[in-house]
Design a protein that fits this description.
By secondary structure, the chain is mostly helical. Helices cover about 70% and strands about 0% of the residues.
Length: about 600
Amino acid sequence: MVTVKAGSRPPWVGLGAAVWVQIASGNAYTFPLYSHSLKSVLGFNQRQLTMLGVANDIGENVGLLPGVVCNKFPPWVVLSIGAFACFIGYGVLWLSLSRTLQLPYWLKMGVKNEHVLVDGLVALELSCTTVLWFALCVATNSSAWLSTSVLVTNMRNFPLSRGTVAGILKGYGGLSAAVYTEIYTTALHKSSSELLMFLALGVPVICFTMMYFIRACTPAPGEDSAQHGHFLFTQAASVVLGSYLLTTTIVNDIFSLGAPISYAFLVAMVLLLMAPLAIPIKMTLNPTNRSKSGVLNQPVRASETTLQGEENAERTEPLLTPSSSTASLGSFHKNDSVSEIDMLLAEGEGAVKKKRKPRRGEDFKFTEALVKVDFWLLFLVYFVGVGSGVTVLNNLAQIGIAQGVHNTTMLLSLFSFCNFLGRLGGGTVSEHFLRSKTIPRTIWMTCTQVIMLITYLLFASALDGTLYAATALLGICYGVQFSIMIPTVSELFGLKHFGIFYNFISLGNPLGAFLFSGLLAGYVYDNEAAKQQGMNLLSSGVTCLGPDCFGLTFLILAGVCGVGSILSLVLTVRIRPVYEMLYSGGSFRLPQNSDN
């Protein structure tokens, strides 16, 4: 039993606090900022580094356990688990990078001869990589705990505006990389070890500070007439913040600014992050009279509205209006040995309700969705889009260096801002065409993956002046994949088990990172580096220069996106009748007579 907070202000206070936690949950996006230091200081080769990138994506996207825990415990418990995971994981990484933790001496203890010493060094390399792999998994898994907590809590606090709230929070999450980059370049002086210390200590501090405000609230019954304006203000504030971050990054990259100006930029960023809190402040200074229902002050179960009766509810459909066969049904309950003829007669006249499978647009159970072709088509399309995109993100620093750009912070900020635009704009554009033309959202996954195909060819060509344009295009297309998948899976398979569906499909991200980044990109990079240096393939710390470092990888990714665009087009054609049924009147309505 969870006691909820009544009133109209607390949900908006919680949303403003959730913005900070959502920014903190983007800590996985900082991997390109310190990955090059891990490679140089610890002597990793590119294949080992890309495997760490896979750990980064696995930790960030494995959110099935947070989804279950969030339905059983209050938000502060979920936030606390995320904070401790962040402290432990990034703490180990900081100890390793700063050389505070001297693993070699532990492994060399007891070595008596040269051969054992060599074996010990090999064991050291494997052990060090394994420890850091698991540490990075734990660290970035904090993202799943933090993001799940604020997303689920705020969607329940604003049950009539779930899509809008999800878009706002995911949009701020897309800006988190630029926020961390601003902190990294200004306050931390581009020190990777200080960044890891900040992640290990700063993120938990934010969580413990904000967890009091992120709590289950019971909104007043009915729609708030001012709610639409409040959401527009929050969206506008996020756009202003994104534009500001991109502008300041460009200015810092072009001009050599003094410390006072840089810190002024940082303070202004913090003030913009506090903009959503202006809504509850305004509601306090200018209160409105609202009728309050007595139910607002009653404690309710944390997930009562979405989970009540989840296990016992049965989907039934009366075949005919109940009639005199009800008497036959009564005798059926009294006598277990009733004949099948009597049972069929009772069903035919409506005395017994016949169970049926859900139709697309209704609430599916997880096992029911797993046997649907549309579910797996959506999974594969999302896997192609985000799996190929995250490969570039994980290797962005090395891609920039290979093409002669050593200041990769600009690339990361550009990718982050365009990722934000894709998340925010993808949902808005798809919503407009869905309601006006009943065009399924997935058509935009088709369009963006065709653009991604062209973008990867631009990366492969390594033409002068195309790196920044290709990074921007890829960031937009990458963000669209998120804003389309989330509402699509809820519209096709319902909201009751949405958390499980969403987190399962999100596994396409680490799976793509493992295949495309860990196995493909790392292997191609190390092979080309070995050719350039004339060294053994497993030599550590070798840097590759030139378009051939990732050329084959980009060509393969382009081909994969070609397949993905075809699959998304097939999915769009398959679900078009479903969307015509759901949005035939220009607004969402539950299905009535659609076939599954």
